[in-house]
Amino acid sequence: MSFRRLRVLLERLPPESATMTAIRNAAPALPKPGDLAKAPWSALEVLIGTLVNEHRLWRYEQTLRNLPKGQKKPDEPELLRMPGDDKAKNSKGRPRAPLTLDQADWLFRHINGLN
After folding, report:
1. Which intervals of the chain are annotated as region Disordered (predicted)?
2. pLDDT at 90
3. Among 19, 77, 78, 109, which one is most buried in terms of CB atoms within 10 A?
4. What is the pLDDT of residues 5-41, one digit of tens each?
5. Among positive and negative, which fits the CA dihedral 58, 61, 67, 71?
C-alpha cells in the first residue's frame, strides 16, 4: 500500500474511530478561547460538548447550593474531554506519552507522501 493511499484512508476515517481519537488526544492544547475552525471536532460537536460540560457544572453547583450543613460535598463532575485538552490519559488514568517531535515529523511526512 502506498503512503498516499494510507493518507486517503486515514483522512476518510470517521471522527469517532480509534485512530482519529488517538490523533485528537495527541493534539496540543488549544489556546483559550479555542478557534472552532481549527478544532479536530466539528463546530456542532464542540458546542454540544461545551453544553454538556456546562450542564454538569450547573447541576454540581445546584447540588452544593442545596446541600444541608454538615453534609459531605459530592465529588466534582467528570467533564467531557474536548479536542486539545491537555488532560490526555489512558484507560488506567495514567498520562499518555505524547508524540515526540521526531515521531510527529515522521508521521506527517509519511501521511503526506513526502518520503
Report:
1. 65-97
2. 47
3. 77
4. 888 888 888 887 888 888 877 777 665 665 555 566 7
5. positive
| SS3 of residue 31 by DSSP | coil
Name the pLDDT band for 86 (thresholds 50, 70, 90): low
End-to-end CA distance of the chain: 14
Contact present, 80 and 41 (Cβ < 8 Å):
no
Q: DSSP label at 42?
A: -
Integer Cα distance of 52 and 58 in angstroms = 10
* Alpha helix positions (H), 12-87: 18-26, 43-65
Query: Would you give the distance in Å from CA 107 to the centre of its chain?
Result: 19
All structural domains of the chain with their residue ranges:
3-111
* Residue position matching grid coordinates 454538556: 52
